[in-house]
Structure formats: structure tokens, C-alpha cells
Write a structure and sequence with these properties.
heterodimer, A: 290 residues, mainly alpha, ABC transporter involved in vitamin B12 uptake, BtuC, two-stranded antiparallel sheet, 11 helices, 73% helix, B: 233 residues, alpha/beta, Rossmann fold, four-stranded antiparallel beta sheet, 10 helices
């Protein structure tokens, strides 16, 4: 029983990170139907930039803020320099561009930073909190609360604000969006900036627990993608639930089977979702009348 | 209100509009009729900015819009209800209408929405349903209502009767006519030449990217060439 609770805690922590990555996917997907495989690199950059600005002498909160803002700027640049010039290209081509971008960012980070593992201190110390015989790190609580807060903010953004609906409208029908006066290029810029900022926030929150190096992004992108698929691509609620569920599945597999199979879970989930319910848990089957 | 001169446009290397002149005066309903493939839709897409004009001028209320991006043209007072309706299928009817007034966030938005529901009561009934589930006629009503939410001075209507049952076509044309009372000038593009000319003040006939004939709608309806080519009489 204690072991189970321990696995649940670790699953929720990892799952919250996957949820943040999946939320990042959701925003860009909602605006453009593109799955941005550079999303994992945003997480890596969030961690790496914080590490290096912190070591350069900036206080941790400022270092984290700098990392989030710089990563958001890079997200905007990715859109302006790589996605926007290819406007009108099929979605598959755009997705391949994001894969290229992720390789570029990874390579550049390896040169600009280094190949070592890094961490910075946890926000509220490293003393584990005891709960019913299991323990949880205070930083885990930061990660989980962070994911839930971002989810609530995004949910309100998409359902309650006109700008949020403009993002949905742009994804649904770009021409019609322009005709009602929505600057669709600006919506894309906003989405990439926002999504990169959320990715970087995930990196900032999780680095004290998992450490960061230039190459952590690939795995995160794949798992975030699996989480988004599981929950239903494009749905913030799905991203949150999918992320937590995937984290729990991983933790249980590692705990009860073998930690060597842990990484296979994400792929089994992708396969399972594609075979059984391609629309995910919360995705709705899209119907269109012609 | 709207003066188009020497308008040319191309898809890739193929030019589809070969120097078009057209005028719409304030308060008029003007129709452009012509066969499928004549370039009518391209003309409207150029006017709304979703298709670039390669040459020529589009002067609307004293300003040349030819280089103004599509999303800025509604703020100038030019709205388009596009061909194939182009509504936001995943969003609700009400959200579609609200987005039609994307540029505004004052109390008039609610009034305009109530107006739209008064104009098309069926939309009020279905306000919370996804717009993609509406019938073709209802989607057309939504497209027109959404365009009106943008408070246009001039409404560009692309084939509103396409694919609709005759009774609905009559209803849509009635709505178009009622726009006169709202001070909305209309440029109506139609394959249904007879229906369009009947409610219009003036008409243009378009053939392979050029205007071949123009005049008061009543004269065009009576013209034997038009009757033979487009009215099937």
C-alpha cells in the first residue's frame, strides 16, 4: 500500500510534466493543426537557460523568468522563420519542419551550453514530505500545482475569452477567420510564444528533480505527444488527464514490472490509442456536413 | 462606394481576371452573374483580400484596398460571406456570431446578435449547437448573419443560393433585399442569374474573367442574349 502511494506520487509528478508538454502541443495544434515536435526542446531550454543564468549570478526567480521569456522568443522566431514562410504547405511538411527545428535547437544547445547534466536548487528545499507512509518532494508539488494552474488558465483562455476563440476559429477555418478580422499570422505567433513559454515553465519546474541536459527534449516530446493523443489532441482537459494518466502508467510499470519497460509505455499508449480510439478520451469525432 | 479598375489576378501563372472594371454605389444591390468558372468567386476573393490582386485598384470609401491584408478590410467596412459558407464548424452558432463581431466588444454586439436571431429565428433555436451540424440553408443564414455582425457598409455575397432548395433560395434573396433597409450595400455574385437580377438594381455579366455586359438589372433580364445564355428561356 505504501509502495502504491509512492508510485502514485512519482507518477503524478512525471505526469504533470507530460501534461505541460501536452498542453503546449494543444495550443499550437489548436491554432494550426500542426504537431510541434520541437515542444520538448522548449522544456530543455527552460531548464538549461535557468541553469546557466543562475550560475552566472542571477537570482533563481529571475533566472527562471529569463528562461521562460527567452524560450518564448525562440518559439516566436521558430514560427516567423520556419513555419510562416512555409504557409500553405501541407500540415505534414510543417510537422517535418518542427522536427528539423528540434534537431537544430538540440545541436545548438550542445554547442552553446555543454553535454553535462545540470540542476539548480529546488524552490522549497529537498526535505521530503511524509504522507501516509510515502514521501513526496516539495518540488513535486510545485510541478503538479504548476501543471494544474496552467491548465486552468488555458481552459479559461479558450472558453471564456474572445482571443481564445479567435485561436480556435483560426484552426477551424483560416480564411473565415481572416474575413471576420482575425489577424491569423498574429494568432500563430501568439500560439508559438505561449506554447514555448509553457514548455519552458515545465523545464524550470522539473529540473531540480530530473536534472537537465541538452538531449532531454526528444523523450519529453514523444511522451507529451503520447499524452496528448491519449487525452484527445487539441483538448486542454485531455492534455492534463492524458499526461497524468501516462505518468501513472509509467510509474506503475516501473514499480510493478521493471523500470526497463517504463519508456515502452508511452509507445504502447500511442499504438493503443490509434487502434482503439483515435480521437482520444476527450476528443470528439469530427463530423462535417457537406 | 466601391470602384474597381483594371483588376487582374492569377493562380500561379494562369491569369483568371483580365483587367476588370466595376462600380458599386452606396445603397445599391449590384449583382455579378455568369457561368461556373467565369471568375466570379475570384473577383470576390480579391475584393475581400483572400486572393491577391496582381494589378489594378480596389477603391473602397476613398481608399485603395488592393494592398491591405484581408483581416484589415472588415474594419474598413467591407465584409464577405464566402462561397461554400465557410463557417466555423467546430464552434457553436452563437460563437460563430460572436466571432463575426471579433473587432468589437461594446454593448452593440448583444443588440446585433439579437437582431441576427430576429432575422433568422432558427439560428436562435440552435444557438448552442456546433455550426457544422446545421443544414446547408441554416449554414448559409449563419454565414450572412456572421458577416453582418461585422457592421459592414458593403457586404460581398458569394453564391448564397448554391445548393439550396427553391423555397430557401427565395428566403435568402428576401433577406438580401431587406439589407437595403439596414443601409448595407450589397455586391451579390450568383449563378442563379434570374433570382439575382430580380432583386438587384444593376448587374454585370462576367465571362472568362471579363465583364461582357452591364446595365440596369431590369434591362439585363429583358435582354435576349442574357435570356438565352443565363436564364434558360
Amino acid at each position: 500500500m505504501d509502495a502504491l502511494l509512492q508510485f502514485v506520487f512519482s507518477g503524478l509528478t512525471v505526469g504533470a510534466v507530460y501534461a505541460l508538454v501536452a498542453l503546449g502541443f494543444t495550443i499550437i495544434y489548436n491554432a494550426s493543426d500542426v504537431v510541434n515536435f520541437a515542444q520538448g526542446e522548449f522544456v530543455m531550454l527552460g531548464g538549461m537557460i535557468t541553469v546557466f543564468t543562475f550560475e552566472a549570478g542571477l537570482p533563481l526567480p529571475l533566472a527562471a523568468l529569463a528562461a521562460i521569456l527567452l524560450t518564448a522568443a525562440l518559439g516566436v522566431a521558430l514560427n516567423k522563420l520556419a513555419i510562416e514562410p512555409a504557409r500553405g504547405a501541407p500540415v505534414v511538411s510543417l510537422i517535418i519542419i518542427t522536427i528539423g527545428a528540434s534537431i537544430l535547437i538540440r545541436g545548438a544547445s550542445q554547442l552553446i551550453f555543454d553535454k553535462q547534466l545540470h540542476r539548480f536548487p529546488a524552490f522549497s528545499g529537498d526535505d521530503p514530505i511524509r504522507v501516509l507512509g510515502a514521501t513526496i518532494l516539495p518540488q513535486s508539488l510545485w510541478v503538479i500545482v504548476g501543471a494544474v494552474a496552467v491548465f486552468v488558465a488555458l481552459w479559461l483562455f479558450f472558453t471564456r475569452t474572445l482571443t481564445g476563440r479567435a485561436v480556435l476559429a483560426t484552426a477551424n477555418n483560416r480564411t473565415a477567420a481572416q474575413l471576420v478580422g482575425i489577424n491569423t499570422a498574429w494568432v500563430m505567433t501568439l500560439s508559438f510564444g505561449l506554447s514555448a513559454a509553457i514548455g519552458a515553465l515545465a523545464g524550470v519546474l522539473v529540473t531540480p528533480i530530473t536534472l537537465v541536459s541538452y538531449d532531454v527534449g526528444v523523450a519529453l516530446a514523444l511522451k507529451g505527444f503520447a499524452a496528448a493523443m491519449l487525452g484527445g489532441m487539441g483538448n486542454p482537459k485531455g492534455a492534463l488527464v492524458g499526461g497524468l494518466l501516462l505518468g501513472l502508467l509509467e510509474a506503475m510499470t516501473a514499480g510493478y514490472l521493471s523500470s526497463q519497460y517504463k519508456d515502452a509505455v508511452a509507445f504502447l499508449v500511442i499504438l493503443g490509442v490509434l487502434f482503439v480510439m483515435p480521437q482520444g478520451i476527450f476528443g470528439h469525432k469530427s463530423t462535417e456536413r457537406v | 462606394m466601391l470602384t474597381v479598375e483594371g483588376l487582374r489576378s492569377r493562380y500561379g501563372r494562369i491569369e483568371v481576371l483580365h483587367g476588370l472594371d466595376l462600380e458599386v454605389r452606396s445603397g445599391e444591390i449590384v449583382t455579378v452573374v455568369g457561368a461556373n468558372g467565369a471568375g466570379k468567386t475570384t473577383l470576390l476573393r480579391c475584393l475581400s483580400g483572400t486572393q491577391p490582386a496582381s494589378e489594378g485598384s480596389i477603391v473602397f470609401r476613398g481608399e485603395n484596398l488592393a494592398r491591405v491584408p484581408a483581416h484589415r478590410r472588415l474594419a474598413r467596412g467591407l465584409a464577405q460571406s464566402p462561397e461554400g459558407r465557410q463557417i466555423f464548424t467546430n464552434l457553436s452558432v452563437e460563437e460563430n456570431l460572436r466571432l463575426g463581431a471579433f473587432l468589437y466588444s461594446d454593448e452593440r454586439v448583444d443588440r446585433d446578435m439579437a437582431d441576427a436571431f430576429a432575422m433568422f429565428p432558427i439560428l436562435k433555436e440552435k444557438r448552442n449547437l456546433a455550426a457544422g451540424g446545421l443544414s446547408g440553408g441554416q449554414q448559409q443564414m449563419l454565414a450572412i448573419a456572421r458577416a453582418l455582425m461585422g457592421r459592414p457598409h458593403c457586404l460581398l455575397l458569394d453564391e448564397p443560393s448554391m445548393g439550396l432548395a427553391p423555397l430557401l433560395v427565395a428566403q435568402i434573396f428576401e433577406v438580401v433585399q431587406s439589407l437595403r433597409a439596414r443601409d448595407v450595400t450589397v455586391l451579390l455574385v450568383e449563378q442563379n442569374a434570374f433570382g439575382a437580377l430580380k432583386i438587384a438594381d444593376r448587374g454585370y455579366v462576367m465571362e472568362t474573367g471579363q465583364i461582357t455586359m452591364t446595365g440596369p438589372a431590369a434591362e439585363l433580364i429583358a435582354d435576349p442574349r442574357i435570356r438565352e445564355a443565363y436564364l434558360g428561356v
